[in-house]
Amino acid sequence: MKHWFSDGAFRAILRNAAYLGSGSVVSALLGLLALSCAGKGMTPALFGALVVIQAYAKAVSDFIKFQTWQFVVQFGTPALEKQDTKRFRNVISFSFGLDIASGLVAVLGGMALLPFLSHALGLEGKNFWLALLYCTLIPSMTAATPTGILRVFDRFDLIAIQQATKPFLQAAGSVISYYYNLGFTGFVITWYAANLFGGTLFWWFAARELRAKNIHNALKPQLFKAARNIDGAWNFVWTTNFAHTIWAARNSCSTVLVGLVLGPAPAGLFKIAMTFFDATGTPAKLMEKSFYPEIMRLDPRTTKPWLLGLRSALLAGGIGIAVALLVILVGKPLISFIFGYKYLEAYDLIQIMLGAIIVSMVGFPQESLLFMAGKQRAFLVAQTIASGSYIVLLVAMSHLFGVQGAAFAYFGGQCLDVLLSLVPTLSAYRNRYLLGFNVPRESNQ
C-alpha cells in the first residue's frame, strides 16, 4: 500500500475523489433529509408518486442524453496536452450542440409519453400536470458538457460545490414544505427549483473556467461542422450514448418499472433502498470520475494504467465491505429515525442489495479502461447483455415476489454487469501492446 501511494497518478485520483467526496457526503446527507421530510410529510402513496415523477424525468434524460462529458475528456484532454486550442474549441462546440439537440428531443419525448403512462404510475389529476411541469427540467439533466470541461481543467472542487448546492436547496425546500404543510405540490415545486438552479450553476462554472483559460467562443453550439474536424467523433458519441441508454434501462428506469408493476407505494420503498445504495456506492463513483481523466494521460500499452485500475478496484472493494458492515449495524434504526416505521420494510431490501454495493465498487475501473483502450463497442455489448437480462429479471421477480424480488433482481444485474465487462477488459490488457496512442504521454516503463 505504501508503494501504491508513492504513485503520483494514484495520489491524484484519490485527491480529486476527496474533492468530490467533500460535496457528495454533504449531498447524501441533505438528500436523506429531503426524502425524510417528503416521507413524513405525505402518505406512502403520495411519497411514491413524488419519487416516480423525479425518476421518470431522470430516466427519460438518461435514455436520450449523450455522454458528452466523456467525449470532452476523451478528445479534449489530448488537445490540451498538445496546447491545440482550436481543436479543444471544436470539441466543446460539438459537445454543446449535442446537449442542446438531445435535450430538445428528450423533453418533447418525455412530455408526449407521459399521458400514456400516467394512470399506471398513479399520476392523475393535479399530479399529472405537476409531473408534466417537472419534465421541463429534462434538458438541464441531459447536459453533461460543463462537467466534462471542469474535469479536463482539474476543477473537481467546483464540481463538489455544485454537487452540494442542489441537494442543499432541495433539502431547504423540503423542510419548508414539511413545516408549512405544503403537501405534494410544495415538494414538487421546491425540488424543481433546486434542480433548475443546480443545472444552471454547472454552466456558469464551466463558462468562467473557459474565460480564465482564454478559450473564447467555445460555447457556440455546432454539430456537423465541428465533427468534421474531429476524427471518430460520431462513432464515440453514439457508442457511449447507446451504452448509457442501456445503463439507464438498468438503473434510472428501475424505480419507474417497479412503479409500473407494483404501484407507487412499493416504488417509494425501492427508492429509499436505492438511495442508500447510491450513498454507500459514492466512493467508487468519486474515484471513477477522477480515474478516467487521469488514465487518459497514460500510455495504454504499458502496465501502469492497468495496475492503477487494479489498485483502485481493490481499494474501492475494501471500502465497500466496510460500508456494507456499517449499513448492517445502523441501517434499521437509521431508516426508522429518518423516514419513520411505515418505511421500515426498505431495510429488508437494503440487506439484499448490500452484495451489489461491493460488486459494483470492485468493478468501477472497467468502463474507463475499456474507453482508454478504444474498446467502447466491447463495453456496449457487455452492457447490452447485462441490462437486457436485468430488465427481464426485474419485471419477472417483481411479479413473483413483490418488491423484494426487485431487490434480488438488482443484485443479479450488478453481478452480470461486472462479470461481462471483465471479459473484454482482460482481453484488452492481454493485447495492450497492439494499442496505439496519439498524444504525448509520460513514460511509464
From TrEMBL:
Residue intervals passing through the bilayer: 12-35, 41-57, 91-116, 128-152, 306-329, 349-366, 378-401, 407-429
Pfam short name (any one): Polysacc_synt_3
Record flagged with keyword Transmembrane: yes
Alphabetized UniProt keyword annotations: Cell membrane, Membrane, Transmembrane, Transmembrane helix
Chaperone among keywords: no
Membrane topology: Multi-pass membrane protein
Gene Ontology, cellular component aspect: plasma membrane
Record InterPro entries: Poly_Biosynth_Transport
Subcellular location field: Cell membrane
Name this protein carries in UniProt: Polysaccharide biosynthesis protein
Source species: Mangrovibacter phragmitis
